[in-house]
# Entry
Amino acid sequence: MRESITVQRVTKFVGLGFLVTLKDLFTGKLDKDDFKVIFRKVLVPLASIILFIGLWHLGAKMLYNVEANHKIEKALREQGQGAADQTAACIASGDIACQPNTLPSPAQVWDSFKSLLNDHFLISADKTAFAEKTAALNEKRIAAGKAPITYTGRPSFVDQIIRSLQTVFAGFLLALFIAVPMGIFIGLSPLLKSAFNWFIQIFKPVSPVVWYLLVFMIVKTVLIDSSEDSSFTISFISVGLCAMWATLVNTAMGVSSVDKDYINVAKVLKLGPFQKIFKVVLPSSLPLIFTGLKITLSVAWMVLIAIELLAQSPGLGSFVWEEFQNGANDSNAKIIVAMFVIGIIGFLLDRLMLAVQNAVSFNKSEAI
# Structure
């Protein structure tokens, strides 16, 4: 019974409380009113997913036929009926060499997803074998003060996902440490608000590409004598600077809108500046601060792809660009896989922020 209550609290805590309702459907514990909740939160989304996949399949099939007919007509126009018949037969046979390169179907995307996972397991096995093979040699190199030999093969799709997550969390933490303190000071001081307002209004709408170029100029100069790969440093700083503005603005708004009675009570109690901030200002401002942090994390995840592409950092951004440049028959399907992975991770990051907000705030929020 206690475990059931714990599961129910956890699922509701992260905004997935409808899963408990769905479980109760199969255990016969539902009231009549609960069926409305299941219809709205389970059946309707499920139907929309099925409709989406069906429309996607039909659209992919239509585009496939258009591209196939174009190939056949081009062969007929340039090489004659024999070449056209040969092209049609090749397309019908399913030979990958002559398949139309257009929007992949759901089945093709699923096959590419399985292929990417299989590649990950193969690459992981290669890494393990390499580590075992070089273990003794690396021990001798480390003992001699030399750098160990490292695996230099291509990263797997899962490795690139992990690299992107590391980059976005590093950028998010940078944004947090810059924007929250700065927002508190601006919110507490009308003078500072006037001084920094122009700065915020000018730099807030700047494109992530421009932030990348600015950070690139600075980091490359600072690390000019360093042999370390600077792509990660450039990527996370660019992400943080591009995404921090929502947190900065919301923190300043939250602090400046704290009830004046609370401030007066802090004065009566003779609280110091830091006590006033941590015991009065921050608790009252948390809902707006977390709204800004959620937006910042979402923006960081969105701009990450473009910044990784420019920085040549081995993450999802470079994966998408390499597949686009590759132009293989399964490249389009792999790009769609990356698109879904990016969207799902973005959804999970939003739920993570919601869980943290509910953990530290008195105002509990529900997921949309």
The chain is about 80% helix and 0% strand.
